[in-house]
Amino acid sequence: MAPPVVEKPVDHTLNRRPSVSNGENAEISDDAARLMAMGYQPQMRRDISTLQLIGVAFMVTASWLGVLGGFTTGVVVGGSVCLIYGLIIVGVFSTFFAITLGELASAMPTAGGQYYWVSVLAPRKLSRPSAFFTGLCNLAGGVVATAGSSVLLGNMVLACVKLYQPSFVIHAWQNWLIGLAFNWTSCSVNMSKKTVARTLSVGMFISIAVVIGLVISIPATSPKHTDATFIFTSTENVSGWKSEGMAFLVGLINANYSFGLIDTAVHLAEDVTNPEKTVPKALLLTVAISFFTAWPLAILLMYCLSDFEAIVSTPTGLPLLELFNFAFRDNKAAAVAMLALVAFCYSIAMASLHAYMSKICWAFARDNGLPMSHLWSRVHPALDVPIYALILCATLVSILSTLVMASTTAFNSLAAGVIIFPSLTYTLSAIYSLLPSNKHIKGPFNLGAIGTFSKVMTAAFCIFAIVIYSFPYFMPATASNMNYVSAILGIFCVWAVGDWFIYTYPIKSLRGVRLESIRALPTGFAYDRHFMLWDVGKKESLHVGVRSSLCLFTTSLTPEHAYESIKVQYGLSHTFDQPNRHVDPSPLMVPLVPNVKGLPQVTVTMHLSPCLAFDMGKEYNDWFSDRLGFSVKLLYIGDHRRKVLGNMGHGVSISTVQAEPWLATIPVTFFLGYFLLPQDAPSQAPLIVAILAVVSSCAVVFQQLGMLKKSKKPLITFADLAAYLVISQKSYEDVNERLPDEEEMDITKFRANIIVSGAQEAYEEDFWAELQFRGSITMKLTQNCARCSSLNVDYATGKAGTSEAGSSSDGSVILNVADKVEVTKRNSQRTITDYPKA
Predict the structure, then answer these.
(1) Residues β-bridged to residue 555
(2) How confident is the model at residue 721 (pLDDT cuts 50, 70, 90)?
(3) What is the dihedral of CA 343, 347, 349, 350, to 10 degrees?
(4) Percentages helix, strand, coil for the chain, rounded to the nearest 5?
(5) Which range (296-305, 613-622, 623-632, 703-712) has the least confidence?
(6) How far is CA 237 from CA 234, 247, 312, 473, 782, in A?
(7) Where is pLDDT greater, at 93 or 691?
(8) Which of 42-46, 120-124, 792-796 has the weakest average pLDDT?
(9) What is the pLDDT of residue 536?
(10) pLDDT for 776 beyond 70
(11) Is cis: bond before 559, omega within 30 of 0?
């Protein structure tokens, strides 16, 4: 998958807009206005309170659960000091993380969080790939954390069974199935936004109560205790690392894991009011509450860890249960009851993780960062949740957790993934925000020099974590104890080569629409250039290369997934501020397939090729004329088509429509069967076989005759010269490399319908003669067109740019983003169009 299109410059000096009359208070209206200034339409109701936000964020981080879930890992590697002092070290750096994220969230409060910030803060040439990488890592962190939690909950259930039935044999598939049940239960809880918000805020208090209960009960009942020397100075190292320092650094993983995913509040910014202040507050409180619940609990665990070897090597496979059983003096019921409380808190944390993941997935899909983004970006109108994103995330968790059945060691590597994936997003956000060009990007929460220092510390520690936690925990490294997190990182970040984009331009020369799937016809994509603007005075079609202000008209298809209208908006960039304050800012809704009965017809000629078109009428003509400042008509081609002059052939054909000589064997077989029928065959058999032979023969004849049909003269709509325009991503990247560092060419300026990635060389598409999609759909490429003057237009202002970037079936087929594309024919030299000159 290619990087998402995130081209939404943020106006950080935006004046507060007037309140909208939607029954909400002024502050919510301001929140909506700020979100729209970032290029998004509000979709979520802002009905989560500050307390509920803190509750969800705390339960996702849940540091004390992280300590309990894997406290033995760090202790085995580097001794108790790794956990006790590690929590202090990581707690301090997590505060830096919270300040960094808080400042950025205050300036740009959006559910996209880190990937959106990176898209705005990164240099133009790095913006899209950096944003895509960041969004993917952000989502991967949530999926990895949830998969680990689901398997751990399954482990808890099986450990309890093993404690009561020592002969019980634990299998990995049992673990996976139980985790699967917890996973989908947590997903279903999130189907109601209000229910999950209330549950998780209450869950925070239940969680704190359980921590207090553990801190009081475990040391009081435990028969043996360690001393302060063991708790605060033990550096026992059985990891195999010869360097005590290296063992300590690797052993910090448990403490760092406990502070994973502290960015939860960032991704709920569109669910709360006044997020510029609420989100930073929630981030800092999440770190504070997490530390003051995790650190005392860690001391308690070390205090009761008197028989370390017995606890670590427990037959139940869960050291925590063995510790509880030891503390309660072999009272299995009490140990299981205490573990059940912990598991209950873990299940609440899993519900929080699903809320976290789904918001990232939904936001990323909203910016076309995922295949089938149109589906994952839907918000259920009644439930107010991204229901399809929830289901996708739960499915990804189910798939990833199957790793436990293949290799327990590989699955345990997920612990490092919970640290590394988010760290990558924090690193890029912090580094790009430190660039001098981004000094002006500030929100209400801004700590000045402290914020700058926090960003430096965030980047430094995250880079350290990414490197250190990729090392094996134990030495010498073998296939059974290897840390496979780097391999998992590669799996998440490597996307399929040969992907492509689809663009359609419903109204010629206006901004296009990017789609995931579309119907392709020999005359072009469905909806593509079926409308155009006609200059009444000059009697010619309007072209964005000549009338640069056309790029200020942005189109979209509505409603989603059942297109009926073209929504046309006019304004500067994505803020839709009106260059002409005297025009109505309301969008224009154009029916996608108008009722042409009663519409006057006019004759238009484009490139020596005339055709009839329908005049859409005064309402539409006046809307465009008022904004352009001269008289224009909106024309619709309807069922009319233009003849194609020159050497352009059919654009799309079905390759399976071809002669099939082997089909002749079918009637031959029936004829042979007729003559070879035995004497005692039923009386009806000869007649049936004869009929089958005749029918199959006729079918074959008709099939072969169908191949002799004369090809029709190729036709197109309001496209200039051809039904489709194809370019490669490699060529686009080559153009960008030739531009100054601060400039990037908007890919839509090429006005292409299909953009293919995976080409080896720039401009190799000039030699392509035929493409094949999904192995059965072919597209003939017949001519190269000249450079389009639309590249010179500044899309941000609608004026001529001053910089180098200009700042053969008659039926149809469905083409989808991510379909496999193959170049099936090549030319020895570039083709040249022979289209007649005017």
Answers:
(1) 568
(2) confident
(3) 130
(4) 50, 10, 40
(5) 703-712
(6) 9, 7, 14, 11, 69
(7) 93
(8) 792-796
(9) 92
(10) no
(11) yes
Backbone angles phi, psi at 814, to 5 degrees: -100, 125
**Cα–Cα nearest to 472, from 257, 254, 258, 240:** 240
Question: What whole-number percentage of the chain has pLDDT above 90?
Answer: 27
Average the pLDDT over 613-633 and give the result: 93
Using alpha carbons, select from 335, 314, 343, 71 the residue that is nearest to residue 170. Answer: 314
Question: Which tokens sit at 253?
Answer: 């993983």
pLDDT, position 10: 38
Residue 728 backbone phi and psi in degrees, to 5: -105, 150
The sign of the CA dihedral 448, 453, 454, 458 is: positive
| pTM (predicted TM-score) | 0.65
Amino acid, single-letter form, for residue 617? G
Tell me: the pLDDT tens digits for 466-495? Answer: 888 877 766 676 665 666 666 666 665 554
pLDDT at 89 over 60: yes
Does the domain at residues 49-493 carry the CATH identifier 1.20.1740.10?
yes
CA atoms of 603 and 617, how far apart (whole Å): 15
For 84, the enclosing helix (H) or strand (E) is helix 80-107
Distances (CA, A) of 159 to 66, 108, 279, 321, 553: 18, 46, 39, 7, 62
Alpha helices, DSSP H, located in 407-551: 408-412, 414-433, 449-468, 485-493
Residue 39 near residue 267 (C-beta atoms within 8 A): no
Arithmetic mean of pLDDT, 759-773:
77
Torsion 275-350-78-302 (CA) sign: positive
Distance, in Å, from the CA atom of 67 to the CA atom of 293, rounded to the nearest integer, reads 10
Alpha helices in 738-802 (DSSP H): none
Closest CA to 535 of 624, 600, 601: 624
With a CB cutoff of 8 Å and minimum separation 6, the contacts of 226 are 302, 303, 304, 305, 306
What's the residue count for the chain? 838
One-letter-per-residue 3-state SS of 556-584 = EEECCCCCCEEEEEECECCCCECCCCCCC
How confident is the model over 28-48, as pLDDT tens digits?
Answer: 457 777 787 777 778 888 878
d(CA 274, CA 26): 11
Q: Is residue 90 over pLDDT 90?
A: yes
Q: Which helix (H) or strand (E) segment is 334 a member of?
A: helix 332-366
Percent pLDDT > 70 in the chain is: 72
The 8-class DSSP code of residue 710 comes to P
Is-contact 728 759, C-beta < 8 A? yes
CA dist 534 and 604 (Å) reads: 9
More confident residue, 237 or 632: 632
DSSP codes, 273-326: SSHHHHHHHHHHHHHHHHHHHHHHHHHHHHHT-SSHHHHHT-TTS-HHHHHHHH
Question: DSSP letters along 13-70, please?
Answer: TPPPPPPPSSS--HHHHHHHHHHHHTT----S-----HHHHHHHHHHHH-HHHHHHHH
Q: Which two tokens stand for residue 71?
A: 């406290």
pLDDT single digits (tens) 518-535: 777 777 778 888 999 999
Domain boundaries, the chain: 49-493, 660-706
Longest dimension (CA), the chain: 103
